[in-house]
């Protein structure tokens, strides 16, 4: 039910994912009056892999997370997360209210032993390689100590290796300089922990302007910094897209030109296509929860489902638990 | 002597500023063998407004700030800042090593009474209005408490009003959400201080994606967050510029098109022109120090000089001292 459009985006995305993944089964949790009409295109065969759990309660995108717990037990989001808790689902994918999803995850699922706080890991474009980097935490926490940053590094490393199919993920700490003496005491302590860990391929500090260079697979920071970082990036991209539009509208030459330039602009938009980067993971809980952006397209939501499938295939929570076990020995 | 190019950029910029500001006098501090040949275009009249203080010592862009104090007393940067201390100059403008400039400022100049820590204030494009917003601190500090954030707000408000010639600058705190309960304890305490201050036009929290919307004239955050924020923005802009170039080179159609699209790209580059946003101020000291970006163009460096002139005309340090006096009554 979540996201700007709700079922008209999430349901077709789910059906598209079913076609591509023959072993996938999907439970759609929400208002069956809205969902059922969207299932008419299902083949009888595929229909056996979809079921609906009906509820008419949905958490609003604008609900305050601190008000969410009361009266939300019957909401589609809580029911979906609770199916993960009960083992009725391997993962939950939602485009709904991030704060509420975090609340539901923390409330219903146990933390992985050894993990103090869950984090949200976002996908970033790594422009030089054409691949991805991963940034965590982008907002599950307000501040984090060195031990938590170290746990984020371990979790991010496991998750990035699963999602990118690249072993020995390169892990960096986001800092205000590359020199060893830079940053807060928390970051300096975290740097020692990361450098000393045989579990990690730690490459040192990176600065904000290197975030999109693909120099690291996993970039670790506290939740406050990460949240402002991804939102600032979105703001900067919006500025340039606005300038492109404004410039094109500025005169007849550009309006004419824009007809010919359309493929150029489409090419850029394709590269920047947010659908490719959609799918943030709530990591650190004993269950898989993937958060889609609220205004993700059908392709974007399908991408988030794919993130969940990869994590199920690799059993990422068990891999993280194993690492934590190993790290504490 | 500072910046990627040194005197070939900074000296012509100084001469251009002299032409536009009839009352301006400029002291060029550095290697006279490099400076003198760049002064041949000076009219005899303008030549009376320029003098050179020679030194052959210059602090490298890569010098570590913690190593700078030793043996830097004779450097062009320290001499330039010291002339402000002695009252021989009203302001110092440098494109050199930021950490060293901060060190020189802190070492040679007194703090304004009531200001615990100086801050660096950067200029941001405010895209909707076509004007500017100002962000501080962008890296003079690693962490800041509520009282310091409040002082940043007061200083930023005075400085923004001077630079933008706009009274009652709108002041916001950068946070991870707009609701009153969001953010760190420091930010929540700072929000109370700002809201209670009759000296400030406080408008509340803004998030990272609103940084360039022009909704606030002054945006306040700790030095760690601010530093990562501006560097991340630069990284995101670089990504898109790279995509534009890559797309244009991708095929004959785009190469042909790019001939016609050149004005479009130039228009965008003009809007994004970093020269327009060049000039960060080291604020909180009893003297005016403006930092130009190391790879600023001549136009950019001239813009930084203009920032210094405006602050001299308004006597910004005295205005800040007056506000602090008032605020503590």
What do these coordinates show?
The structure is a homodimer of 329-residue chains. Chain A is α/β, with parallel strands linked by helices and 329 residues long. Chain A has a domain at 114-277: Isopropylmalate Dehydrogenase, CATH 3.40.718.10. Chain A contains twelve helices and ten strands. Chain A has helices at 7-20, 32-35, 44-47, 65-68, 76-85, 98-108, 146-164, 185-196, 223-249, 252-272, 298-314, 316-327, and strands spanning 26-30, 50-54, 91-94, 119-126, 131-136, 170-174, 201-206, 218-220, 280-283, 288-291. In chain A, the strands form two sheets. An eight-stranded mixed beta sheet of chain A has the order 3-10-9-4-5-8-6-7, with helices on both faces. A two-stranded parallel sheet of chain A has the order 1-2. In chain A, helix 8 links the parallel strand 6 and strand 7. In chain A, helix 1 (7-20) crosses helix 11 (298-314), helix 5 (76-85) runs parallel beside helix 6 (98-108) and helix 7 packs across helix 12 (316-327). The model of chain A has no long low-confidence stretch (mean pLDDT 90). The interface between A and B is large, with 56 and 56 residues.
